[in-house]
Amino acid sequence: MKKTKADPQEIVLARVMAAHGVRGLIKCQVYAEDETLIRHARHPKITLKNRHKNDVWLAEAEGVSSKEQADALKGHLV
User: Fold this and answer.
1) CA 48, CA 5: separation in Å to the nearest integer?
2) In a designed cystine with 76, which of 13, 16, 39, 58 is the match (CB 3.0 to 4.6 A)?
3) pLDDT tens string 20-52
4) Distance between CA atoms of residues 9 and 28, nearest Å
5) Do the strands 25-30 and 46-53 form a parallel or antiparallel pair, or are they unpaired?
6) What pTM value is reported for the model?
7) Residue 56 pairs with which residues in a beta bridge?
8) Residue 21 in contact with residue 67, Cβ under 8 Å?
9) Cα–Cα distance for residue pair 55/42, rounded to 1 Å
10) Bridge partner list, 27
11) Which DSSP helix (H) or strand (E) runs through 69?
């Protein structure tokens, strides 16, 4: 299920913007000042790889290995 609205009891740390490449990387707009907080996110479990532009990071999502799978996460809140 795609999560595009935040639960009032949750803090949104990032939003998945788009797929990047064909191996399942995703672009995430990170809202948190401390990027290390992302490692505690549950769904999807993501690992930031490197800063792409300003507050946009390239990341890996657990279990995602193709562009199609990454595309399915677009708009998802972390």
Assistant:
1) 22
2) 16
3) 999 999 999 999 888 888 877 776 788 889 988
4) 22
5) unpaired
6) 0.81
7) 29, 53
8) yes
9) 21
10) 18, 58
11) helix 67-72
Considering only CA atoms, give the Rg of the chain.
11
Determine the 3-state secondary structure of 58 from DSSP: strand
Q: Which amino acid is present at 41?
A: A
Q: Give per-residue burial for 18-54: e unless 16+ CB within 10 Å, then b.
A: bbbeeebbbbbbbeeeeeeebeebeebebebeeebee
Q: Could you give phi then psi for residue 40, rounded to 5 degrees?
A: -90, -5
**What tokens were used for 38?**
């992302």
Query: Cis omega (within 30 of 0) on the bond before 8?
Result: no
Is the pLDDT reported for residue 1 higher than 50? no
CA distance 78 to 68: 19
Six-digit token pair at 44?
């999807």
Structure tokens given for 51: 């800063």
> What does pLDDT average to over the chain?
86
